[in-house]
Amino acid sequence: MNELVVIVEGETEQAFVRNLLGAHLPLHGTVAWPILPGRRRRHGGVKKWEVARQDIIRTLKEGRYCSTMFDYYALPDDWPGKTESCVLEWSQRASCVEDAILTDISREMGGNFNPKHFIPYIQLHEFEALAFADVESLVSVVSPLARLPNDVLTDTFGKILKTAGHPEAINDGYDTCPSRRISGIVPAYKKRVHGPIVTERIGLDVLRKRCTHFASWLHRLESI
Questions:
Q1: 36 phi/psi in degrees, rounded to 5
Q2: CATH 3.40.50 location in the chain
Q3: Which of 70, 118, 139, 189 is deepest in the core (most CB within 10 A)?
Q4: Domain 2-126+206-222 has CATH 3.90.320
Q5: Quick one: 156 exposed, middle or buried, by C-beta within 10 A (0-12, 13-18, 19+)?
Q6: Distance CA 210, CA 88 (A)
């Protein structure tokens, strides 16, 4: 089995990698587990690039494959490619950052480094975008928390998705990012608790079908 370490933004992503990818990737010959950024690894959050960079390099030098799972939303400007990505179409932003990250890490690792061992991934635009891949699954999880009937929730979330045109296009504005879209409708929604439940209920097959950038990452992980 190949070993893959995924450096993740927070506990939500940690649960996602542990529960979904951790169960799926062994079918493709890879054991995956998540770690939070930084030496203490007690708290997540989008860190300065140097913090994540040190974790990535340390993992690669240990001989393991490495990937990342950080939200594009609120990504610090010191991350490679972030400033340049802001002027691009939404569908190109994460790839711009990923390419710049790979270039930076490859330069640091030196000429003998095989870039196939590092598979950077930046989530467009936030983890909760994945929840919009299947509105019915999202409603099934949040409806016990809501004061609205299910048909109203389905219609409201459905309109958000229809307006954006794609789950990953739901943007990175402070009030319009995916998590605040959900919590604005269901205030009791807690990302750390309910986010992984929603994505587990949706499943990787649907996520792959409806979230293009995510599907590309999953394919690369399966191809290790």
A1: -80, 155
A2: 2-126+206-222
A3: 70
A4: no
A5: middle
A6: 21
φ, ψ of residue 139 in degrees (nearest 5): -65, -40
Which residue reads 């509105």 in tokens? 135
Rounded distance between C-alpha atoms, residue 105 and residue 115, angstroms: 9
Structure tokens belonging to residue 97: 């950052």
Q: What is the pLDDT of residue 38?
A: 81
C-beta of residue 1 within 8 angstroms of C-beta of residue 184: no
What angle is formed at CA 193 by the lines to CA 139 and CA 2, rounded to 5 degrees? 105
Which residue, among 63, 3, 6, has the nearest Cα to 29 in the 3D structure?
3
Strand 30-35 versus strand 65-71 pairing type = unpaired
- The rounded distance, in Å, linking the Cα atoms of 186 and 114 is 46
Say what the pLDDT of residue 43 is: 54
Predicted structure pTM score: 0.94
Q: Using DSSP, state whether 216 is helix, strand or coil.
A: helix
Q: Which residue has the tokens 């951790």?
A: 22
> CA distances (Å), 32 to each of 22, 84, 122, in order?
5, 31, 17
